[in-house]
Amino acid sequence: MTAIPGLGTPRLASPDLLRSVFRRHAAGVAVITAQGGGGPVGFTATSLSSVSAEPPLVSFGIGTRSSCWPVVSEADHIGVHVLGEHQEALAGTFARSGADRFAAPTGWREGPEGVPLLDGVLAWLVCRVVTRVPAGDHRVVIAEVVVGDPSGTGRPLLYHQGRFNGLRD
User: Which intervals hold domain Flavin reductase like (predicted)?
Assistant: First the structure.
């Protein structure tokens, strides 16, 4: 392919191209949790999105090869946690494969509908799963908000260029 003036040289679609482009897209950092028969599960997500205000719906993506997918695929309710910039270590723990994510120093408690809720977050929601939509090697989970709390203090944690960052003024 030839260069396009002011836009560089285009590359054909590939997983690497998509990852490279989205490394440049700053995203808020959330942790999604659910309760399974073997205990709580959770993972770091940068795909959290508001879908609808009426009814209040959110969505997020999860890989079908994720260790959390078997529980999320069956869960009636999930927890959504918006992380603050002071929670970079927590985001890393929930992003790391094989980590004991709910062991100390992670602070958490059982919330409404039995959903694990993390301590010290900027905001949290408990949501009822409405549907799981196949999307390549992922599923897009759409869930309706049941209850939540937006009263945490601090600034949001962001993910950009493969790193966690704080918001700059």
Answer: 22-166
